[in-house]
Amino acid sequence: MKKSIVLRVALLVLLIACVGCGRISDNVDEDAAGVGGTVDDADSPAPSPVGGEGGVEKEGEKGNVKANVKANDNVKVDVAYRSIDNVEVTLTNLAKRTLEYGERWELQFLADGEWTNVPSDAATTDIGLAVGAGESKTETVDLYYFYGDLQLGRYRIIKEMSMGSGEGRVKVDAVGEFEIESEESLQVGPHYHEPEQGDVENPYVETDIAVEKGRWFNITYTNLTERELKYDKDGWRLQFYNRGKWMEIYGSAFEPDSAALVLDAGGTATETIDFGSELQEGHYIFTRQMLMGSDVIETSARFEAGKP
User: Fold this and answer.
1) pTM recorded for the entire structure
2) Tens-digit pLDDT profile for residues 188-215
3) Which of 303, 298, 249 is nearest to 275 (CA)?
4) 147 and 117 in contact (C-beta within 8 Å)?
5) pLDDT of 144-184, one tens digit each?
6) ∠ at Cα 19 (15, 23), nearest 5°?
7) Which domains are assigned to the chain?
């Protein structure tokens, strides 16, 4: 009987000792890595904030909207809003490395206390623009071209930038806020909807365009020179006047060696081009490249489409 009691007491003491060891082990993990962490976590380097070197801090994402984007130590942004088609944004590089960026801007509108993306259908290119360490660069942004009509209120404009290269490349968001306070500053000039009139001058070829049903174009060329001109079915482009700027919406490369069509000196020729679908209402410029001897020349003509 005594042996049984002694055995039970020994087992109880052993159980208590095991539980105590487990608690000590847990405390060691928490002390080393922080509550809820592990020793391995503590030894790992903490993730750097977006932007690095004191860069942009993003506390969350709301859909495609960057939430709580804050000013950072890499770049200073000053915004001077003059009108919807003339916003001056000065980027000052406060970092020790060059900041690179492209043409694209992101615009957000403050609605009911939340930032909302303003959509844009304008095309941009990721060309290699840059501002050196300690330098400033001022960009003039045409908000009407990128975003069309806007409303009064609070906005912020964001430029995604980067520094470094390869695996060490770091993204930096340059952020600047501004206010649109008057209806007058939302207006654009009439040139935005209709370009200045006047023919496209060309001393070599006269080009006339007859629009048929919005998608078929009969184009007549008159050779004004005393030399033979050559061209092919490709080698032309089409530009559309959109929000004050000419935008190329179609283009094909001209191959001089493939120029098999001949326009005699002083002669005329007509070709028909099908754009595949009816063009939207507006102003266009059609340009064709031709070969005069060994020189490539261009002939252009303006026209309107989409109107009865």
Assistant:
1) 0.50
2) 766 666 666 555 678 899 999 887 766 7
3) 249
4) no
5) 888 888 999 999 999 999 988 888 888 888 999 999 999 88
6) 170
7) 2-43 (no CATH), 60-188 (2.60.40), 192-305 (2.60.40)
Token reading at 104: 């694209």
DSSP readout, the chain? Answer: -HHHHHHHHHHHHHHHHHHHHHHHHHHHHHHHH-TT--HHHHHSPPPPPTTSSS-----EEETTEEET----SSEEEEEEEEETTEEEEEEEE-SSS-EEE-S--EEEEEETTEEEEPP---------EEE-TT-EEEEEE-HHHHH-S--SEEEEEEEEEEES-GGG-EEEEEEEEEEE--SGGG---GGGTSPPP-----SSEEEEEEEETTTEEEEEEEE-SSS-EEE-S--EEEEEEETTEEEEEEE----GGG--EEE-TT-EEEEEEE-SSPPPSEEEEEEEEEEETTEEEEEEEEEEES--
**Structure token digits, residue 92:** 């000052």
